[in-house]
Amino acid sequence: MAPRLSRPPDPSDPEYQSLERRINLALHIAIFAAINSSIWFWRSLHYADWQWTIWTTSLWAVVVLGQGIWVFSKEN
Questions:
Q1: pLDDT tens per residue, range 20-71
Q2: pTM of the model
Q3: Assign residue 30 a region: left if phi > 0, alpha if psi is -120 to 50, beta otherwise?
Q4: How far apart are CA 64 and CA 44, in angstroms?
Q5: How far apart are CA 57 and CA 12, in angstroms?
Q6: How far is the C-alpha of 55 from the C-alpha of 53, rounded, in Å?
Q7: What is the pLDDT of residues 13-34, one digit of tens each?
Q8: In 10 A of CB 53, how many CB atoms?
Q9: Alpha carbon distance, N-terminus to C-terminus of the chain
Q10: Which of 11, 47, 59, 74 holds its CA 20 to 30 A away from the CA of 20?
């Protein structure tokens, strides 16, 4: 079920702001999943020993997790 607003969109409306934060979080999670899985796919495909992939995944996951905590702590 798609998220919906109960009234016309108004950027100063708290419900609108909450929906916007949740949609941005979903977009960031999707981008993280797509890029991160691609990096690990190429790493395994080339039998590479790229140490930066571990750091990139870890740091990016912490940032996305932090954003998720922030988004859900701002809920009404």
A1: 999 999 999 999 999 999 999 999 999 989 999 999 999 999 999 999 999 9
A2: 0.83
A3: alpha
A4: 24
A5: 35
A6: 5
A7: 888 888 899 999 999 999 999 9
A8: 16
A9: 20
A10: 59
